[in-house]
Amino acid sequence: MNLTLHIWRQKNASDPGRMVRYEAKNVNADMSFLEMLDVLNEELTLKGEDPVAFDSDCREGICGMCGFMINGVAHGPQRGTTVCQLHMRRFKEGDQLHLEPWRARAFPVIKDLVVDRSAFDRIIQAGGFISVSTGSAPDGNAILVPKPAADLAMDAAACIGCGACVAACPNAAAALFTGAKITHLAKLPQGQPERYQRVLGMVAQARQDLFGSCTNIGECEAVCPKAIPLDVIAGMNRDFIKASWERREEVIEKGAG
Amino acid sequence: MSSVAADSHVHRAFHFYQESLGKKVVMAATGVVLFGYLVAHLLGNMQVYLGAEQMDNYAAFLHSMPALLWGVRALLLISIVGHIVSSIQLARLKSAARPVSYVKKEAIASSYASRTMMWSGPIIAFFVIFHILDLTTGAAGAAQFQDLRAYENLVYSFRRVPVAAFYIVAMVLLCMHLYHGLWSMFQSMGVSHPRYTPIIKRAAAWVAILMAVGFISIPISVLTGLVGANL
Ligand code: HEM
Ligand code: FES
């Protein structure tokens, strides 16, 4: 099949960037979206042009490196799928595809479709540590975890930190990501000792990284490649309210007063 | 920061409100107050169908308790100011959070109502100001405005077609605002459950629609002569 691609080209962080049109000829329907771009990049390289920069690593939908907007939808038209697992059979002859990087103040563009997602790492760091003993592996049954709690924690822990939630959110909020990380530990016994400190720290960090504010509209849940539900945001709100109410000591060092 | 300040309620409230989650809780809590008022107001208004005497007696009854009346008015004023101030602060975060917009962006899951809260809200605020000038103080009311003659005032006001039309448009927007707002406030306050949230969403939609239908029925009844034909 033949496709027309409109790709965001931006040399570096300070370049204003623009959309550039490319023709993708004889695209194999069995290729993944990233493989289609690999073929385009080979052609560009042979022509002496700069190939299109995009992130990827595992290419099996588990690492969270890949991701960009395809026709205004994060990770493209297939629900619960990263772009590396999206296949060209989802598209048809003559399709016009607009590819753009995630857009958020907190995710500055490095080049073309590649953005800097360190802000997510800072949110994770702000969550701090959990108290587990090191040394030899503990007995598997030493800490009992109810099955429903384990399942919910696992659902939240499925977050691969790709950033699609922020990209899809009209407010560029990081609520689904932060909510997933908070819920994942809040459901488990190992997450309890620092539970309320963690939520205050992570929520404050998301604000300092200039993510927007959630309006509960649900675009994030729809594009999440791991189908993480909005429920985790309510869980975060619940823990935040409780933590703010019970705050017994100064826990947010950065940005205080 | 001294440890005394760190423990104070003011300090705690400051940190709470500093986060967007705290502002959302304020939006939700003030939204509950405003919604509660709307329910009472709608029930009060439904008395137009019981005739002029009932309606005017009800108005006189409310005015016979000035402490309660002004208490409620003060609470509503505080709530609306809190609701508006936090919504503006959050909206400013939103525009700062995405300085470069998308060339192409599709909404695939969200309702139209949820994406237009910052349109429906301010228009409702503008409507509320007009509504008070129209039917409470009479400053923007019909020429025949008389204090405490609630029934006549409303009939004369709604006979002006542009006024009735604006009222109806505002109530449609209120319906949209509540369609999203009434369930969103549960989410903002951390109430969510895979079993109950779908029920809350459906109930919110029905309540929003029924309230709008109730309010809109009044100007329509006036214009069709069902109410106030004898005036
Ligand atoms: C009759 C008056 C009103 C009622 C009953 C009402 C009710 C509500 C409720 C229950 C919410 C949900 C809160 C949440 O998501 O946690 C909400 C949200 C909102 N309200 Fe109002 N509201 C009213 C008037 C206004 C006005 C005058 C504005 C003007 C600025 C406004 C702006 C907003 C906005 C922007 C949101 C969205 C917040 C978000 O989704 O993040 N509202 N409203
Ligand atoms: S490259 Fe790892 S998730 Fe797509």
Could you walk me through the main structural features you see in this protein, from its secondary elements to its overall organization?
- The complex is a heterodimer of chains A (257) and B (231).
- Chain A is 34% helix and 11% strand.
- Chain A has helices at residues 33-46, 118-127, 147-157, 164-168, 175-186, 195-208, 219-223, 231-246, and strands at 3-9, 18-24, 69-70, 73-74, 96-100, 109-111, 114-115.
- In chain A, helix 2 (118-127) runs antiparallel to helix 6, helix 3 packs antiparallel against helix 5 and helix 5 (175-186) runs antiparallel to helix 6.
- The mean pLDDT of chain A is 94.
- In chain B, helix 3 (20-45) packs across helix 5, helix 3 packs across helix 9 (161-188) and helix 7 packs across helix 9 (161-188).
- Chain B has 231 residues and is mainly α.
- Chain B is globular, with a radius of gyration of 21 Å.
- Chain B has helices at residues 3-7, 9-18, 20-45, 52-63, 66-97, 112-115, 117-135, 150-158, 161-188, 197-224.
- Classes of the chains: A alpha+beta (257), B mainly alpha (231).
- At the A-B interface, helix 6, helix 7 and helix 8 of A face helix 1, helix 2, helix 3, helix 5 and helix 9 of B.
- The structure holds protoporphyrin IX containing FE (HEM) and FE2/S2 (inorganic) cluster.
- FE2/S2 (inorganic) cluster (FES) binds next to loops of chain A.
> For this structure, what is the CATH class of chain B?
Mainly Alpha
Beta-strand percentage range of chain A:
5-15%
At the fourth level of CATH, the homologous superfamily of the largest domain in chain A is Alpha-helical ferredoxin
CATH topology of the largest domain in chain A: Fumarate Reductase Iron-sulfur Protein, Chain B, domain 2
Residue-averaged pLDDT of chain B? 93
Query: Helix-strand pattern of chain A, N to C?
Result: EEHEEEEEHHHHHHH
Q: Please report the first level of CATH classification, the CATH class of the largest domain in chain A.
A: Mainly Alpha
Mean pLDDT of chain A: 94
Ligand types: protoporphyrin IX containing FE, FE2/S2 (inorganic) cluster
Tally of alpha and pi helices of chain A:
8
**Proportion of helical residues of chain A:** 25-40%
Q: How many strands in all of chain A? A: 7
C-alpha geometry of chain A: elongated
Show the largest interface. Answer: A-B, 56 and 53 residues
Note the run of SSEs of chain B as H and E.
HHHHHHHHHH
Major beta sheet summary of chain A: 5 strands, mixed
Total separate domains of chain A: 2
Total domain count of chain B: 1
